[in-house]
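Minutes, project check-in
Item: structure for the 480-residue chain
Input as provided by the requester:
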Amino acid sequence: MLDWVSAPEYWLSRLLLERALGLLYLIAFVAALNQFRPLLGERGLLPVPSFVAAVPFRRAPSLFHFRYSDRLLWVVCWTGILAAAALVAGLPQQGPAWVPMLCWLTLWVLYLSIVNVGQVFYGFGWESVLLEAGFLAVFLGSASHAPPVAMIFLFRWMLFRLEFGAGLIKIRGDECWRRLTCLYYHHESQPMPNPLSWYFHRSPAGIHRLEVAGNHVLQLVVPFGLFAPQPVAGIAGLAVVVHQGWLILSGNFAWLNFVAVALAFSAFNDAQLGAVIPAQAPDLAPMPSWLAAAAIACSVLVAVLSYWPVRNLLSRRQRMNVSFNPLDLVNSYGAFGTVTRERYEIVIEGTEDPEGSPESKWREYEFKGKPGDPNRRPPQVAPYHLRLDWLMWFAAMTTPWDHPWILGLVERLLHNDAPTLKLLRGNPFPDQPPALVRASLYRYRFTTRKERKRTAAWWERQWVGEYLPPIGLSRFEYPR
């Protein structure tokens, strides 16, 4: 009776999709556990208590509106980690359909609670991608029955918006995408290059133009194949996986590309995946009627909420990475509508000399991911996400007064604040805090092949000017 709502030929697809999404949620909660407190905690750079006092629940639904504490954040993160780990192991999926549903719903609610109070530190498109995918996963059911066919197509619809939106924003945005020249700059100027970015950047110009042309085909043409019958849908899914794998090799974009790969599993049926992954589907029980009804209701909800993303896609003033509701459901996506031609980096230094004279010895703070020491090879970070490093990339494009958290960071460094220092690669003042901290702006570029051979440096940098003058603790002493 419910055969028409079941997709037994996508049993293995669901298994891979769930495992991949569960792993990415696990990474997201680990990142929150490691970074949320110094960035957004009770004494963070942008404290959550101040945010929830100013922003009503209806605009940013979060459990932390009822109460926030660093200890509660710890509980939320560990609950998310354990639930995600269980889904990766496939334990909830072995029970009745309501068990994995409860696990996915828990992950979605907890991570939504974090994102909605995360302010600029959680203002990235991949947060919405993960939340939307996690919500759809709620309705996938258990391993004992076939997945609802509606959910398979809703995952494809999400992947279509992710790819097609990114393609459109490029064509409509920076003219270098239309001239096929954006990759002359992108690998060097992207927020966080990885170990292979130098090699990608030094590829011949003809290769860069071919990459851009291929990107346009893969993001503007191929996504339509996701809705075609097999084997076309599987071929489109394979093209997405190859494309996203290329992006993973060329830069650090947190879990964005990895989520796209996970979504692409919905395009393959079990016969196609079975050629690579030998697995035998069990004897599948009939799908519970209540799950079929829930999947249909979810489909109706997505159809209604799709009005705003579709309107945005068709608009000449397309907006990138926008959520049209506070629950981050059915969003609009995009990436790099504008490509920066030059790379600027903020270099933060401290000194023990309270006078800050020209003879003072200044020591540089190194970040975990973003460029600093020209001789240090860009690290591989993704799918992990270094939030402070990414925000430093944005801050370098404007003034410190456009980023209120910058002065908070300086104050924490002047106190040798341990949680803040854990966000950095090391502490150049292990014995006592610096007397003064300053920030300079540098222009960075990848070294040429000859320079790299001669100096072994990955970067060449040139001082541009002062970003923040030397600041001591007296700057933060206010009358009581």
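Outcome recorded: The radius of gyration is 24 Å.
No further action items on this chain.
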